[in-house]
Amino acid sequence: MAQEETYLNPNLDRTISLDSTLLANRKSRNMMAISPATNAVLNILMIIACLLTLIPIYVIVISSVTSEAALTKNGYRLWPEEFSTMAYTFLFSRGSIVITSYINTIISTLAGTVLAVAMVGLYAYAISRDNFKFKTFFTFYAFFTMLFSGGLVSYYMVTRQVLQIHNSLWALFLPSAFSPFWVIVMRTFYKANVPNEIIESARIDGASEWRTFLQIVLPLSVPGLATVALFSAIGIWNNFFNCLLLVDEARYYSLQFTIYTTLNNIRFLLENADKMVGLVNVSTLPSQTFRMAMAVVTVGPIIFAYPFFQRYFIRGLTIGAIKG
Amino acid sequence: MSVETSSVAEPVSKKRKGWGQDKIYTNLSYLTMVLPGAIWLLLFAYLPMPGIILAFKTYRLQKPPADFWIQNKFIYSLIKSPWVGLKNFEYLVLPSNMESTITYIRNTVLYNLLFMVVGLVLSVALAVIIYELTNRFWAKLYHSILFLPYFISWIVVAYVVYALGSANGILNNLFQAIGWQPLEVYKLKSAWPVIFLLANIWKYTGNGSIIYLATITSIDPELFEAAAIDGATKWKQFVHITLPHLIPVIVLLQILAVGRIFGSDFDMFYTLPNGAATVKDVTYTLDVFVYSMLRSGAPVGYPAAAAFLQSIVGFVLILITNYVVRKTRPELALF
């Protein structure tokens, strides 16, 4: 019966429904825990893995606080001879290019995240309901786009020449404001976490579908929607491709695009400096530390926000905090 | 599934009642909910689909005459441009282009296979280790740190590659201090498979392990307990209990990954090499190739032909994989 109703294998629900909390099922662990020796080895392994993971972040941060003189003299070092916060002072005092793209990115991240949560949350809720007549159609309608696409060239032409969202802030978030993948995940989330009985009883009490959704379902779905919000926000904040493909005017550049072009231009100029004697004065280029500071400033908000949203995605990703 | 609302077995009178105003109102409400998403999918996913025929046309931009049904240059030109059969594909296999086309396809497929296998093994291993660690606080801390790179953009990683691997980078300074050969990754082809692999592991292992960790924690601990009492080692428990429980998730993710085998993580392949032309042979994937052709001013049909291959091969592979899975283990198939 289920097979007739949906194109998707019902097992898909089981597999993406991560019906568990990380801390559940731990009652009787002690008697079968790994031996202290194994535990020690695994801990050491994990500590090494964590240190290796943090190295790149360390490299960026330390390069940004190296003094320009030390950098010119010695190149990049794991521990600089001389520290300096010059780059940051410089970055925030002038740097209109960074400020503009920062503002663009903040606006598009906010707008895109709100849109994504609203569109994904509503779409997924409707197709999670068995009394929606077109449930199967709209499930397939979203799912099919995960399997097949028109390709980059056609997408490029359509966004630029039909939708005409290029060279505007829309270009930075609209293409990322919806995701069939998160629709499927959220559909599973609703099914696993919002008991049908609650929705049915709201209906019997005379609440409309919209009211049921807004007053009953929404409060129960915070972990799931917060996860969608988080991943959309990160996706748009870190997005480079939308800007690369659809924006030609500097005033609409996104943060990632700006810092990439800066790195790219300067590497090119430095490498070819000997061939361009007299054409480019290398010493007037934005300094090396300045650029590293830009990278740090890009990562900054994410690192600061990390602990706050972490408690959500532990629950939201291992979707199904309520069941069990 | 929808026993309470299905009207199949109900008498006619009830059936008609089922389609009364109430039902219509319910369905209309749901339709208003899917509407924004449906419009988005229509514009950004379905509208570009017919454009796939660009691969078989010589695209010429023309202005539609005033009486044409749609006043859009692209749509008009798409319809009116002449069909040229496989001419655009022939361009990709011209003697002068053949080698690079094959190289880019090879890069795309090999990198994808490498990432699929390594990513799977490491993510599962990490999930098992995190689950087995006896101290929960440390386990959580490790996992948080290993998950962090997922939130850092590839462009920042490109900066890291520069700070570590450029001519005045940390590694080169280190190598010269101990008297080794100088190292500059932007000129060294053999460095790139290693860089991409490390970068991929760094960014995705923590994130990839979450779904496996969640699945492992959902296994009834009594299974492990019973196995332990019967004298099964941890490894045997992994093979006979953990792995079978992980198989559905693994199969699901691998089917989707197979569908993307002609695609790639564009941002990584495009930004990490920083446009260094010397290492093009090992850093270009089909995505980057299509993009650079599209922006080079070449006739639109050429990149369109490559993009067509990407779409069709991905689609066909996902259908085949799913078919094979369906034949062998129907309960694991995606659709």
From TrEMBL, chain A:
One Pfam family cited in the UniProt record for this chain: BPD_transp_1
Species whose genome carries this gene: Anaerolinea thermolimosa
Major localization class: membrane
Keyword Transport on entry: yes
Lineage of origin: Bacteria, Bacillati, Chloroflexota, Anaerolineae, Anaerolineales
Origin superkingdom: Bacteria
SUPFAM superfamilies: MetI-like
One of the protein's GO biological processes: transmembrane transport
Localization per Swiss-Prot or TrEMBL: Cell membrane
Gene Ontology cellular component terms for the protein in this record: plasma membrane
Family: Belongs to the binding-protein-dependent transport system permease family.
Protein name per UniProt: Carbohydrate ABC transporter permease
